[in-house]
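quick one, four chains, predict together pls
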Amino acid sequence: MEIKEHVINKMQDTLKIASDATRLKIMFCLLKEEKCVNDIALEINASQSLVSHQLKILKDGEFVKSRKEGTKIYYSLKDEHVRQIMEITLEHVLEDEAHD
Amino acid sequence: MEIKEHVINKMQDTLKIASDATRLKIMFCLLKEEKCVNDIALEINASQSLVSHQLKILKDGEFVKSRKEGTKIYYSLKDEHVRQIMEITLEHVLEDEAHD
DNA sequence: ATATTATATGAACAATCATTCATATTTGCA
DNA sequence: TGCAAATATGAATGATTGTTCATATAATAT
């Protein structure tokens, strides 16, 4: 193979992070604007703890970044790659919907 | 949320399929040309059984398609979305490499 | 028919991972 | 200093999943 083993592994890690319903909901939640943890939890109807755990995973994986303001912490999508992965995956899914 | 729950779930399923090192290796293997099961197994150094199992998952998820010729079955990438997901994820990973 | 080659499948096991619950940390304010 | 609000963390658990091994199916050739 032409591609390095450790690059494959990093791709696996990256995609594994994206491949979870809770984390996808969080990302869609942040698509338009930054939000703090509690607002996200309310919006996607999940516990504060769960959202916090998943945000950590998303942040470690470079999917989101955060900004502190007083006692609140605002999260937002990190870059264009994240949006693109969401977009293309969505297209793929919607295309399938068509001929099911 | 604006996006439907079952679309999120399908996105999860799609990304889950992509997020495995063995399956990624298979996809990279098929990037340029179609190949049969045994050739893939040899190329990525995996057992025939494992490759067959993973090809089934890739096929069910619309990542690859297959073509029968005699006793052999040739697999190839299904469409552009697959290539794009690989490409963008690769970019994301390589960008991270830069500032580690 | 039998043997051979290519691929698929089912069961089983180990490992990974999402979620919950309880608790800890941090910040702002009275 | 003490309280409340916002977020993070650790342990435990139940479910999912990648891999292996053994075996089954399918097609071809002798």
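The interface with chain B takes residues 1-3, 7-12, 14-16, 18-21, 24-25, 28-29, 43-44, 62, 81-82, 84-86, 88-97 of chain A (CB under 8 Å).
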